[in-house]
Amino acid sequence: MTIQPLPAFEPPYVMSVFTSVRTQDDSGYPETLARMIELVGDVPGFLGYESARTPGGLGITVAYFRDHASMAQWRQDLEHQTAIRRGRASWYESYTLHVATVERSHGFVRADT
């Protein structure tokens, strides 16, 4: 399997950058994460996401949405709200969320030689 970033999207679009440090409590986290991925995929205007965690424990997830309205729909989802509360109570030591409008986007893929 080839690992590649998501393709560049046609601007403008919006992105949220969720940077986190987790606790040791993993109870229910994998199941909740799988459910959140399933749910966000059904939001009209959701374009995709990329996520990585460093060996030291810093996690970064970037989610892309067509517009602020689609991002707001995700933010207001009741199951997502429940997961946010549980994350604050159990799964995260700390996190930050940054939201931005993307004005320019491009990509590169090396051609097979």
TrEMBL record:
One of its GO terms (molecular function) is monooxygenase activity. It comes from the Bacteria. Residues 16-85 form the ABM domain. The keyword Coiled coil does not apply. Keywords: Monooxygenase, Oxidoreductase. Pfam families: ABM. InterPro entries: ABM_dom (IPR007138), Dimeric_a/b-barrel (IPR011008), Jasmonate_Hydroxylase-like (IPR052936). The keyword Transferase does not apply. PANTHER family: ABM DOMAIN-CONTAINING PROTEIN, BLL5343 PROTEIN. This is Antibiotic biosynthesis monooxygenase. It comes from Streptomyces antimicrobicus.
